[in-house]
């Protein structure tokens, strides 16, 4: 059987950083994100007749680096004695550069694989399987504004609002498109071990989640902006105080933040957030999107700018 899916990356406004269970990849903190629209990963999974070696192609090239993680994800879904699968992944944006490509990839993978292996699992179950492969991927199973909460035994997910309920625009300023120096999984494990800020990061997370949730429910842009920038800067403070330090920013990252600050001073509804990479995501109301994109395009060191609205969760495109 063969199935094809699509998933879009999501951007956390209240960040996930740290694991409470590394084996099951359960996060130490809840998080809150928006699922994007224009950036996507399309994944095709074809199940062979017998057990054997899986094969993976990413953007037209064979990929052995990601294959073990992908195979483990398929084992968790279809059992270790499953038939081998051939997986083809295509993304329309730079991968492994802090643009949440693993989120869209693993969300797309579980959806396509479930269909290709003949299953029809509920979304929450697929989100939990995606989350085991990559914590942030669980959120891309849902569209719009998504909260991931830490339940007693596993993660819980809730769509707080749909993409059209509060249609924000995200302008991504790409400041470097190469792979990042250290993967987020390894980096957050180092932070938990060595950053003196890590315990208070975990302890305060519920306050940020509460603020962000109420900002989404009441569509309060300023409130969301304040908590999102604070969560982003706290996460990067934890990274910076890790030993050895983890610094994902470059000079253009800081210049983009300054450009967003100056738009804010002029009264424009926009805020920034940054993940495990040097790209800056500026979240704004749609009427300011053109100005925000033009402003970020003009920042020295910005290679390109992508503009996107909010989109739906991962879904099957076709099955045969
Ligand atoms: C900075 O989901 O990539 O983007 O669970 O180890 O795969 P693993 O980590 P990952 O971490 C994402 C971290 C972040 C913040 C976020 O998306 O919440």
Give a structural overview:
It is a single chain. This protein has 8 helices and 16 strands. The strands form 4 sheets. Strands 8-7-9-6-1-16 form a 6-stranded mixed sheet, covered by helices on one side. A 4-stranded antiparallel sheet has the order 2-5-10-11, sandwiched between helices. The chain is globular, with a radius of gyration of 19 Å. By secondary structure, it is α+β, with helices and mostly antiparallel strands. It has helices spanning 67-78, 101-116, 123-133, 184-194, 198-217, 221-240, 251-265, 289-297, and strands at residues 2-7, 10-14, 19-21, 26-27, 31-35, 41-47, 55-58, 61-62, 85-91, 145-150, 155-161, 169-174, 270-273, 280-284, 304-308, 315-319. Helix 1 packs antiparallel against helix 3, helix 2 crosses helix 3 and helix 5 (198-217) runs antiparallel to helix 6. It binds ligand DP6. Ligand DP6 binds next to helix 4. Residues 12, 15-16, 25, 31, 100, 102, 134-136, 184-185, 275-276 line the site of ligand DP6.
